[in-house]
Every structure is written in structure tokens, then in C-alpha cells.
Specification:
Blueprint: E1 4-8, H1 27-48, E2 54-59, E3 72-76, E4 91-92, H2 96-102, E5 108-112, E6 120-121, H3 123-135
Parallel strand pairs: 4-6
Antiparallel strand pairs: 1-2, 3-5
């Protein structure tokens, strides 16, 4: 896993009062923009997606994945080792949904990535296992 920074460029047209001063905006002017523009941005994202709005994407070198308390991972409880056979303590999931599907009926715990020593993300392995079982 890694962190990336995604910059969007969003533009929309709104109608404002004649006395609206773009060079000296007040709190109420910002409120007008928020009330009128934000719903349009949501609608545009819902109908058009994000593809054309992405201005840039780059790796986050200042705050790599695992350095933030927001960076979480998931792991089934090891209380019943028979139910998690084949999984090691350093193996974790980026997606809680994938972990739940891989280990149905097992409690899925949430950890800060920094709590796991040298974490290895295994989501793709379990997604592939599920797909190969469907083909048979």
C-alpha cells in the first residue's frame, strides 16, 4: 500500500448578486459560493465521474502510508487459530469487506498500520482465491 495525493480541478458557474466583490469576499460571500457551487460539484461528480477533473496525481512522500493515524488495516481475530489457518500475524487487509469475505464468521479487528510490525497486505491474494474458486 502507498499514499498518493490527488488534485482536482473543479469549475462551475453560479449566479451571484451584483454587489458580490470577488476581490474582497466576506463570510456571507463564501456562504453563497458554498450553497450554490458545492451541490453542482456533487452533481457533476455523480454524473461525469472524476476522470476529466483530475489535475494531478503524485506519491505522497511527506506522509507515506502508515505514518498517519488514519491509515488503518484489518485482520481477523486469532482467537480461534483453526479459523485463520494460513494467515500470519503480519498479514493484514486494506479492505474490511475483503477480510470479512475471506474469513466469514470471524471477528475482524481494526488496527493502525503502525501497530503491525512490517505489515503485508494480502487483499489481492484473497480476491484471486475467491475468483479461482468461482471458475471451478
Amino acid at each position: 500500500m502507498k499514499s498518493i495525493l490527488v488534485e482536482f480541478s473543479l469549475t462551475t458557474r453560479i449566479v451571484v448578486p451584483d454587489d458580490f466583490d470577488v476581490d474582497n469576499m466576506s463570510d456571507s460571500d463564501y456562504d453563497i459560493i458554498r450553497e450554490k457551487a458545492v451541490p453542482r460539484f456533487h452533481e457533476k461528480l455523480d454524473t461525469e465521474g472524476v476522470g476529466d477533473m483530475i489535475a494531478s496525481i503524485e506519491e505522497d512522500e511527506e506522509m507515506p502510508f502508515g505514518s498517519s493515524s488514519e491509515d488503518v488495516c484489518y485482520q481477523p481475530s486469532f482467537d480461534d487459530l483453526d479459523k485463520v489457518d494460513g494467515l500470519f500475524s503480519f498479514q493484514v487487509f486494506a479492505s474490511k469487506e475483503v477480510a470479512e469475505k475471506a474469513f466469514p464468521g470471524v471477528e475482524i479487528l481494526t488496527y493502525n498500520v503502525g501497530d503491525i510490525e512490517d505489515p503485508s497486505f494480502v487483499d489481492e491474494q484473497y480476491i484471486k482465491k475467491k475468483k479461482s474458486k468461482k471458475k471451478k
